[in-house]
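[Meeting: bench + compute handoff]

Bench side (C.D.) handed over the final construct sequence. Compute side (W.E.) agreed to return the predicted structure before the next meeting so the bench team could plan truncations. Sequence as handed over:
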Amino acid sequence: MASSSVFVFGFVVALLSLSLRTSSAADFICLFQRLTPWADGPEFITQCPIRPGGEWWNANPIDVENAALASGGAPADADAYTFNGWPGDLFNSCVSNSTLNVVPGKTYLLRIINAALNTQFFFKIANHSMTVVGADAAYTNPFQTDVLVLGPGQTHDVLMTANQSPGLYYMTASPYATAVGVPFNQNTTTGIIAYGNARQATRPILPVIPAFNDTTTAFSFSSNLTSLVTSPFWSPVPQTVDENMFMTLGLGLTPCNSNQNCSGFFGQRLSSSMNNRSFVLPSQVSLLEAVFRNISGVYTKDFPDTPPLIFNYTDVNNSFNQNILFAPKSTSFGNYNPTTDTQKFNLVNPQERNTFGVPVGGWAVIRFRANNPGVWYVHCHLDVHLPWGLAMAFLVENGGTPEPTLPPPPADFPKC
């Protein structure tokens, strides 16, 4: 079924369990947008999109998306990955790198953002370790590692000490991809850590790059991050819940039109869903404005809180197809068991994130407090999945006092 489906919350605490066959990232738009949802940004969710034409609109990415949607397949692969706009000298036609000059003995704070649309990355610095101190703008307990894993839209704050011999050291970002049979760009992008007195003629040292499907490394990193509960903005995780949801994230196929040749698997169109619902964006008004002005026919409130059918949600051979801060309490592999897996929950210092990864063939459980009125987009953070329908929205209603009440849109709010 395709629709603009929302799930309605009062001011409650919700527990959300997600299950997925291939690793992915999910996102609640957006972070700390408290009582200003009209400026949140997602097109046709809280705002109307930027209109075609003008200096703030570019046709090139739209052309890529339209070509994929017309074919029923996936968009063309990227030509290269980049560090701050530079592919690095491992890319055939590039001789320039993004370079960070360092002074021996000094410690540097690196804020690393995965701004790619469809790729998860391993990040490494040759011969250097890093200490993670933040994730998605929330403090973490210091965690020492030689590799980071970042899904699209995720951020990490790390400390790096320039404690190696003078020289040139590669920073690398290489893809982490687990979908079987799906092509992807296998290039590695590089930047350079350059000690001040290093000779430019010196060949940079390259780190050991993880295999593209190294789920063990990815899971080890993501499962070891915890929140710093003594930080000034720490919000304790709710100990009890009012609402429970079980959500399956699925990729599948829909029939190709009779007069069309589709480039998806088996000649069909690629599609995706949450609990067997494929999300379709409105085209005339945003969901938030439709809610605020009580406009009918724009969305439905019947998003199911469990899958319509019970099956093996993580079997690869199966034929079935942010403004809320949340705490990923636990992740693991296989099917989620609400009886035994609750023993794995971290209710003391779980990560606080706005984008989290669901491990390949596994699940993630999150808990959040619905205390921010508005319509919040819940979607896969691999952008290729959005036009296929891998999304839904939470409608958080007004509270019982004036403070948690959705304000009206600004007078100059753009029209669709």
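W.E. noted at the follow-up: The CA atoms of residues 380 and 386 lie 7 Å apart. C.D. will use this when planning the next construct.
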